[in-house]
Design brief:
Blueprint lengths: L7 H13 L1 H9 L10 E6 L4 E6 L2 E2 L1 H5 L4 H4 L3 E6 L8 E4 H17 L7 E5 L4 H13 L2 E4 L6 H10 L4 E5 L1 E4 L2 E4 L1 H8 L8 E5 L13 E3 H5 L11 E2 L3 E7 L7 E6 H16 L6 E4 L6 H13 L3 E5 L10 H8 L4 E4 L1 H10 L14 E5 L5 H11 L6 E4 L33 E4 L11 E7 L9 E2 L3 H9 L6 E9 L5 E6 L3 E4 L2 E4 H8 L5 E11 L3 E10 L9 H12 L8 E4 L13 H8 L16 H9 L4
Parallel strand pairs: 4-17, 6-7, 6-8, 7-14, 8-11, 11-12, 16-17, 16-18, 18-19, 19-20, 29-30
Antiparallel strand pairs: 1-2, 3-13, 4-5, 9-10, 14-15, 15-23, 21-22, 22-24, 24-25, 26-27, 28-29
Helix pairs in contact: 1-2, 5-6, 7-8, 10-11, 13-14
The structure holds adenosine-5'-monophosphate-propyl ester (PRX).
Length: 634
Amino acid sequence: MTLQISNLEEYKEAYRKSVENPDMFWSEQAETFSWRKKWDKVLEWDFKEPKVEWFKGAQLNITENCLDRHLKTKGDQTAILWEPNDPNAEVTKLSFRQLHAEVCKFSNVLKANGIGKGDRVCFYMPMVPELAIGVLACARIGAIHSVVFAGFSATALADRIKDASCKMVICSDYNHRGKKNIPVKQVVDEAINQGCESIETVIVHKNTGGDIQWNENLDKWWHLEMIGKDPVCEPEVMDAEDMLFILYTSGSTGKPKGVVHTCAGYMVYTCYSFRNIFQYKDGDIYWCTADIGWITGHSYIIYGPLLAGATTIMFEGVPTYPDASRFWEICQKHKVNQFYTAPTAIRALMAHGDEHIDKYDLNDLKVIGSVGEPINDEAWQWYNDKVGRGRAPIVDTWWQTETGGIMISPLPNITDTKPCYASYPLPGIQPVLLDSDGNELRGNDVEGLLCIKYPWPSMIRTTYGDHNRCKQVYFSAFDNMYFTGDGCRRDEEGRIRIIGRVDDVINVSGHRMGTAEVENAINEHEAVIESAVVGYPHDIKGQGIFGYIIVQDQEEISDDFAKEINAIVTKVIGPIAKPDKILIVPGLPKTRSGKIMRRILRKIASGDASNLGDISTLLNPEVVDKIKKLAGLI
Ligand code: PRX
């Protein structure tokens, strides 16, 4: 089993070893997995290209490590515990043995439908066990999964299907979300109609049994396909650096990019980080509330926990259905030991009042985690007092889609915790703070740009179909560094606090969005000439979206303009990208080279226009006062 740190001395020792001799450190970790063939070389790298190869020469299948290797000792232990949306509906428990059989059967379904090694398969599904089964089945036969969060629009789904030329989509008929049933298959049909010519098959999981349109040429039912399939499927033997999955994420420019993760390094690091950060012990019940449409769900609902032989809960519903005590009711019901959620959920539940939590028995909780966005002091304190009850430490985990696994986090009961601080790097992770000229800020009590100067096993390998983009976005800002896009502070004792993005990415309820993406959507409205979108502080969402819009003729704008903008953004991206506020403006502050001065727009959006700095060098300084006036700030 993966080596687990159990005290501060061991953490310090592991960290020292991981920096002094990374090859030895990671080969010791890797030894704990089952391999078809061991590696010839632990690491080969060059951030200039970038090229990063871990465990080169090794052969493996990640599902053998997630499933087969647990069968002897944990075959009857629950691997996936599924809690449905309806609190009165039956819980599903799949043991490692059952999960193994289901994954093998579905692997055979994939094969029977012409899917093989290297083919891309898109998932657009709710949080049901079939999603995990499907993802693992892809990994078993060497197909590359691309899970798309089921809140994205048909257009966004079509873009992602086309970018990866997926051969198959796997979806449900409808999603249960609280009181609502969301039509999922219909969105897939719309996406396919937008020119997804690579799609040969759509597999539909019957979730609600609601009416759907059926396309005889493409559609097949999951349950009918599974009939008579062999519950045995030999895993495809994969090379260490073969692609495992693609996951799309937003950046400051252009369309979302497909972040590529590969088999061996991702396996070693997700398991290692899972065991250490959650201090998982055999028999514990672990619950991460994320959606599998995001990296947190990939690494810490499916792969990390299953690799570690853990019982992982999958929850279909939402935190506020049937009421705001649902999370705590589930923690009590399943005696959850490790709980992992996002600050936005914590803030939303905090706002509903303590009566929703105080009556629940949360004594089994040993560790509570936070991920996805900075956690503010008030939310941290509430989480600590009300959920952790001052007993279960908070692990504020900083990482990204691109990092594959948690990079900076306290280790519970091993390193200390400090409100709002992600604290210390995991062994193997070498963060550095740079000033904007690229000089390293070595001491403590400094603030700068967060970069990582040495490879770690689960790091991004490329952006699908466009390696140059990967190089430009992450490896070109500073020599020989992976640039995270985040700013951070290091306190007097060396703990790291993430301040937030320093690029044009906004984080709304933990969902990452590029301002350019939202602007492009807004600009599709026929009356819009130009727009600029910025984030502003929002009590529940962390950041809200503020859109400044220039229109052709203000007289012509209908009373429903804001609704029309929301409808377009919902159609192009999804409801998560709808602006919270829009302001029609006569112009946007620009530099002489034509660049929008977002700094000024961010200040105004935050309701504070007191200190905008020097605006005299702007191309159009007069517009600033006009915008301030329209925003009600003067
Ligand atoms: O800005 C950081 C923020 O989320 C970004 C990564 O988003 P995504 O790729 O969607 O992955 C989210 C889940 C891993 C980061 O660049 N972020 C993530 N975790 C934290 C955070 N900001 C502050 N504190 C965190 N713990």
